[in-house]
UniProtKB/TrEMBL annotation:
Lineage, highest ranks first: Bacteria, Pseudomonadati, Pseudomonadota, Gammaproteobacteria, Enterobacterales
InterPro entries noted in UniProt: Efflux_drug-R_Bcr/CmlA, MFS, MFS_dom, MFS_trans_sf
Superkingdom per UniProt: Bacteria
Protein's name according to its UniProt entry: Bcr/CflA family efflux transporter
An individual GO BP term: xenobiotic detoxification by transmembrane export across the plasma membrane
Organism of provenance: Rouxiella badensis
């Protein structure tokens, strides 16, 4: 049965449960789509621009994490819909700027600009879920959305790989302009989930105080840092996998998407399983199991690459297990973190997103600075941050409460 919104304010736009889920899924997929679709083109872009194109991901993540800290308080004050419209408009402008860029500095600038808008999708999507659903139900809803939104990172690299066969990498960014325009129109079918009486009326100083309160909330920060460390590892793979598969192992760009899609299929499967598991087990217990499994896979990856055994098959298999665990990790950690601070869900989701995707800045910069032309740098970065995530999760106490 498809989850549907509950207790939506009477002045909001009416929509069916299916439409609500579809639009939220598309919003939450904006981040992955903005990067995954041009992954197969990165080696070609590096050759064309004569620069480290890993910086285009770094620039996007910088804009993404900073902007969320601003959009969070804005959404708590003005509601969720208005910031979404402005955000998607910025995304469209940034995508056009990327397509028209002449050098690496220009494209990094427009990637930052693109991120200023793209960040509103997943951040406000999570906040809207917390506006409407209880702790366990929110985890179920997030798992459902992850199944649907996983279409983007499957189709994105496949589509991007085919587009560079027929056109240039610039066409990929023009496609993002079109997608952004379609999303802007779809927002008209999205309800406002934060009624007037629940909106935060505090000033900017109040927003800063909210972030201070979040940073000093140990329970919220544990779940947020666990997710952030895992995403630092995930972005090491996202950033370097085109070079590992295409440049190192010689996989053709149009086939790279299939290797990348394999991981998303695993993520979708675990998300579907997680929808049932959250009804039987605590979020904390599921999170501990998932990050432990991801850590084991990451260590197998690192040792396999260091010892030069298994080749591309070991890398693909280990990353499949590692990435699949995101179907549990993202949903359970986000639901548990937001449950700790329900009254400022917008700011909480913003800070979570800033740290979650900001952690990718660390891994992408490490790859740009320390890449040695082999999979080793990617492998040890994945292992390091996944183990950190596991340690944080395993030292978190279980709370079986629900609201």
């Amino acid at each position: 049965m498809t989850p549907s919104p509950m207790k939506i304010h009477r002045h909001t736009v009416k929509t069916s449960g299916l439409a609500f889920v579809f639009i939220l899924s598309a919003l939450m997929a904006f981040t992955s789509l903005s990067t995954d679709i041009y992954l197969p083109a990165m080696p070609l872009m590096a050759k064309d621009l004569q620069a480290d194109v890993e910086l285009t991901i770094t620039g996007f993540l910088i804009g993404f994490c900073i902007a969320q800290l601003i959009w969070g308080p804005i959404s708590d004050h003005f509601g969720r819909r208005k910031p979404l419209f402005v955000g998607i408009a910025l995304f469209i402008i940034g995508s056009a700027g990327c397509a028209l860029s002449k050098d690496i500095s220009q494209i990094v600038f427009w990637r930052v600009f693109q991120a200023l808008g793209a960040c509103t999708g997943p951040m406000l999507g999570r906040a809207m879920i917390r506006d409407l659903f209880s702790r366990t139900r929110a985890a179920q809803m997030l798992s459902t959305l992850m199944v649907i939104m996983a279409i983007a990172p499957i189709v994105g690299p496949l589509l991007g790989g085919q587009m560079i066969e027929m056109s240039s990498w610039r066409a990929i960014f023009w496609l993002l302009v079109v997608i952004g325009a379609l999303m802007f129109m779809a927002l008209n079918g999205l309800p406002e989930t934060l009624p007037e009486e629940k909106r935060v009326k505090a000033s900017f100083c109040g927003a800063v105080h909210n972030y201070y309160a979040l940073l000093t909330n140990s329970r919220y920060m544990r779940f947020t840092l666990c997710l952030s460390a895992y995403y630092a590892a995930a972005y090491a793979f996202i950033t370097d996998s085109p070079f590992v598969y295409i440049s190192f192992f010689g996989v053709k760009p149009q086939y790279y998407g299939w290797l990348f899609a394999l991981n998303i299929v695993g993520l979708m499967a675990m998300s579907m399983i997680n929808r049932r598991l959250v009804q039987r087990h605590s979020l904390e217990w599921l999170l501990k199991c998932a990050v432990s499994g991801a850590a084991i896979a990451a260590l197998v990856l690192a040792f396999g690459v260091k010892l030069q055994v298994g080749g591309i098959f070991l890398i693909a298999a280990a990353v499949l297990v590692f990435f699949s665990m995101n179907g549990v990790i993202a949903a359970t950690s986000a639901a548990a973190a937001l449950d700790a601070v329900p009254n400022i869900a917008g700011s909480a989701s913003a800070l979570m997103g800033a740290l979650q995707y900001g952690s990718g800045i660390v891994s992408s910069l490490l790859l740009a600075l320390m890449h040695d032309g082999t999979p080793w740098t990617m492998a040890w970065i994945i292992a390091l941050f996944t183990v950190i995530s596991a340690v944080i999760a395993l030292t978190t106490k279980t709370d079986v409460g629900d609201d």
